[in-house]
Specification:
heterodimer; A: mainly alpha; MetI-like fold; 2 domains; two-stranded antiparallel ribbon; globular; B: mainly alpha
Chain lengths: ~325, ~280
C-alpha cells in the first residue's frame, strides 16, 4: 500500500475507531488483559496480602481442585510446597451442577407454560404479564434473598401455611441440608419472567393459520403443541437455554445471603462462585480463585458447545422464512 | 348459543386461573410488604396479608442503618451510583453501537464477533486481575471500580441492544444530512441518538435496575460503611451465621429498596418488554 493509500485508509477509519475507542480500551484493559493475567495467576500461588512472595506452581491449583477425586489429601507443588487438597471443591461443583440442571429446565418449562397461557385473546393480558414479571424484577435483589430466608425458616411463612392445613413435623427448609438447595432452585424458577417474555414474542410469530389448518386435519391441542408450537419455537428455546444456563452457573447473591456469607448447612448451598469468592477474598488465595474461574469458563464453554452441537438435531430453522 | 356461553365460561376460568396463580406467586412479596407494617412480635406468627395492628416502628428501627449510618445515606449512595452508571453506559455503549451499527471500517466484523463473545463470558474470569488492578490504583473502597468500567462499555449487553436498534433505523436521513454538510459525528448526535431514544431509555432503565440490585461488585469494592449502597446495607441485617436479629427492620428496608424498581417498571413497561424481547436479556 502506498503512503497515500495508508493515509486515506486511516482517514476513512479514524472516525469509526474514535467511536469505538472506549469499548476498545475496555476490551483490552478490562477483559483481554485480565483474562490472560488470570490464566497466568492460575498457575501461581498468588496471595493478595503478600504478592511479592508469589511463585509459579504449575498445575498445583488444578490438582488442589480435583485431588479429592483421587483420594489425595495433599499435593506437592513443583516448588516443593505441600498444599492441602480443597475438600469442598467437588462439593461446590456438584451443588452448582444440580442447581443448573434442575433450575434451568424447570424454569424454561414454566416460562413456556405461562407464555402459552398469556398468548390468548383475553382482556388484561398486559396487566397479567406485568404482574407475572414482578418476581423477576425483584428476584435478584438482596431484599428477596432476605425474604426467602424468612419464608423457608423453621418458623417461617411456608411452614406456618403448611402447618395451618394440617402438616406436622416440618423441617427448617433453609437449615436442612437435604432441602436448602431446593429453596434456591425454587427461587430461580420463580424468576421466569424474562424467558416468558421471549417465549411470548416467539409465540406471536407463529401464524394462527397453522393451528386452524391442523385442527381441520383433526389434530388435538396436544398434537398441535408438539407438531407446531415446539418445532417453531425451538430456536427460542435454544436461545433461552443457552442464556439461562450461562447465568445459572454464575448465581451468587441468593446463595451468599441465604447461607449468611458461607455455603449454608454442610455446604449444601456452596455455589461455585461463592466458593471462588471465599477462596479469593476470605482466604486471599487469588491464584487458586483464578484457576477456579478458568475451570468455570471451560465448563460453561464446553456445555454451550454441546448444546450448540446438539441443536442440529432438535432446533429447526424454518426454511420458508 | 350454548357454545357461546361455554366459551365465556372457559374465558372466565382462564382469568381465574391466571389471577390465582399470580397471587400465589406474589404472595411472598405482598406478605413482606404488609409484614413490615406489623409489630415485630407478630411477624413470625401472622400469615395473613392484612395486619391486625399497623405500626411504623420497623421503618424507624430499620432506617437507623448500620455502623451509625442511616439509610438516607445508603439510598443517596445507591441513587448517585445508578445515575453515574447510566451516564457512563449511555455515553460509551451508544458510541460503540453507532460504530458497529452504522459505520464502515476495517476489522468491523472481527471486533463485533469479539464483542458478542464477551457477552457470554463469565465475569469471574476477569475478576481477580481487575481487583488487583483497581487496588493498585487505590480505588478499592470507592465507586470507581464500579463506574469506570461502564465508561469503557464493558456492559456488552447494551452495546448489542443499541446495535440491534440502530441497524433497524432508516438510513435515508443520513444521506440528506451528508448533503447538508453533516459529518459522521453530526449524524451520531443529530440523527442516530434522537431516533434511538426508545433503546436509550431501555438501556438507562436496565442499567438502573442492575446497578441498584447488584450485590457482588458492591460487596467486593464498597468496603467502608459510609459508601454502602442499599443492597450492600441490606446484607448487614443478616449476621454471619445467617441469623437475623431485626427482622422487622430488614423487611421494612427491603420493602423500601424495591420501590424505585416498582415505579420505574410500571411507568416504563413498554421499554422493558421491548428490551427483553429484542436481546433476550438475562433475568
Amino acid at each position: 500500500m502506498s503512503n497515500r493509500g495508508i493515509v486515506s485508509f486511516f482517514r476513512r477509519n479514524a472516525v469509526a475507531y474514535m467511536f469505538l475507542l472506549p469499548w476498545l480500551i475496555g476490551f483490552f484493559a478490562l477483559t483481554l488483559y485480565p483474562m490472560l493475567y488470570s490464566l497466568f495467576l492460575g498457575f501461581t500461588d498468588y496471595d493478595f496480602t503478600k504478592p511479592d512472595s508469589t511463585q509459579v506452581i504449575g498445575f498445583a491449583n488444578y490438582m488442589k481442585m480435583f485431588g479429592s477425586v483421587f483420594n489425595a489429601q495433599n499435593i506437592t507443588a513443583p516448588t516443593g510446597e505441600v498444599m492441602r487438597v480443597d475438600p469442598y471443591y467437588i462439593k461446590s461443583l456438584s451443588v452448582t451442577f444440580i442447581y443448573v440442571f434442575a433450575s434451568v429446565p424447570i424454569k424454561l418449562a414454566f416460562a413456556l407454560f405461562v407464555a402459552i397461557l398469556m398468548n390468548q385473546k383475553l382482556r388484561f393480558i398486559p396487566l397479567y404479564r406485568a404482574i407475572y414479571y414482578i418476581p423477576t424484577l425483584l428476584g435478584g435483589s438482596v431484599a428477596v434473598a432476605v425474604l426467602w430466608r424468612k419464608l423457608f425458616e423453621k418458623d417461617g411463612l411456608i411452614n406456618a401455611i403448611l402447618g395451618s392445613i394440617g402438616f406436622t413435623d416440618l423441617p427448617g427448609w433453609i437449615t436442612n441440608p437435604s432441602y436448602a438447595l431446593s429453596t434456591l432452585i425454587l427461587l430461580s424458577v420463580w424468576q421466569f419472567g424474562s424467558s416468558m417474555i421471549i417465549f411470548l414474542a416467539g409465540l406471536k410469530q407463529i401464524p394462527m393459520e397453522y393451528y386452524e389448518a391442523a385442527s381441520i386435519d383433526g389434530a388435538n391441542k396436544r398434537k398441535q403443541f408438539f407438531t407446531i408450537t415446539m418445532p417453531l419455537l425451538s430456536p427460542i428455546i435454544f436461545f433461552n437455554l443457552v442464556m439461562q444456563m450461562i447465568s445459572a452457573f454464575q448465581a451468587f447473591t441468593q446463595a451468599y445471603i441465604i447461607g449468611g456469607g458461607k455455603g449454608g448447612v454442610m455446604n449444601s448451598t456452596l455455589f461455585y462462585t461463592l466458593h471462588l469468592y471465599i477462596q479469593g477474598w476470605t482466604y486471599h488465595e487469588m491464584g487458586y480463585a483464578s484457576a477456579m474461574a478458568w475451570v468455570l469458563l471451560l465448563i460453561i464453554g464446553l456445555l454451550t458447545a454441546i448444546v450448540f452441537k446438539s441443536s442440529n438435531s432438535w432446533v429447526s430453522y424454518g426454511s420458508g422464512e | 348459543m350454548k357454545g357461546k356461553s361455554n366459551q365465556v365460561f372457559a374465558k372466565l376460568m382462564t382469568h381465574l386461573f391466571i389471577i390465582v396463580l399470580g397471587l400465589a406467586m406474589l404472595y411472598p412479596v405482598l406478605w413482606m410488604i404488609t409484614s413490615s407494617l406489623k409489630p415485630n412480635n407478630m411477624i413470625f406468627s401472622d400469615t395473613s396479608l392484612i395486619p391486625k395492628a399497623v405500626t411504623l416502628e420497623n421503618y424507624v428501627s430499620g432506617w437507623k442503618g448500620y455502623a451509625g449510618i442511616s439509610f438516607s445515606k445508603f439510598f443517596a449512595n445507591s441513587l448517585g451510583l445508578c445515575l453515574a452508571a447510566i451516564v457512563a453506559n449511555l455515553a460509551s455503549c451508544s458510541m460503540a453501537a453507532y460504530a458497529f451499527g452504522r459505520l464502515k471500517f476495517a476489522g468491523k466484523n472481527l471486533w463485533f464477533s469479539i464483542m458478542m463473545i464477551t457477552l457470554m463470558l463469565p465475569a469471574h474470569v476477569t475478576l481477580v486481575p481487575r481487583y488487583i488492578l483497581f487496588n493498585t490504583f487505590g480505588w478499592v473502597g470507592s465507586y470507581l471500580p464500579i463506574v469506570v468500567p461502564k465508561f469503557l462499555a464493558t456492559d456488552a449487553f447494551f452495546v448489542f441492544l443499541l446495535v440491534q436498534f440502530i441497524r433497524s433505523l432508516p438510513t435515508d436521513l443520513d444521506e440528506a444530512a451528508i448533503i447538508d454538510g453533516c459529518g459522521k459525528v453530526g449524524i451520531y448526535f443529530r440523527i442516530v441518538l434522537p431516533l434511538a431514544t426508545p433503546a436509550i431509555i431501555t438501556t438507562a432503565l436496565f442499567t438502573f435496575l442492575w446497578t441498584w440490585d447488584d450485590f457482588f461488585n458492591h460487596l467486593l469494592y464498597l468496603t467502608k460503611p459510609e459508601t454502602y449502597t442499599v443492597s450492600r446495607a441490606l446484607r448487614t441485617f443478616v449476621g454471619d451465621a445467617g441469623a437475623v436479629s431485626n427482622w422487622g427492620g430488614a423487611m421494612a428496608m427491603s420493602t423500601l429498596s424495591m420501590i424505585p424498581c416498582f415505579v420505574l417498571f410500571f411507568s416504563l413497561q413498554k421499554y422493558f418488554v421491548q428490551g427483553i424481547a429484542t436481546t433476550g436479556i438475562k433475568g
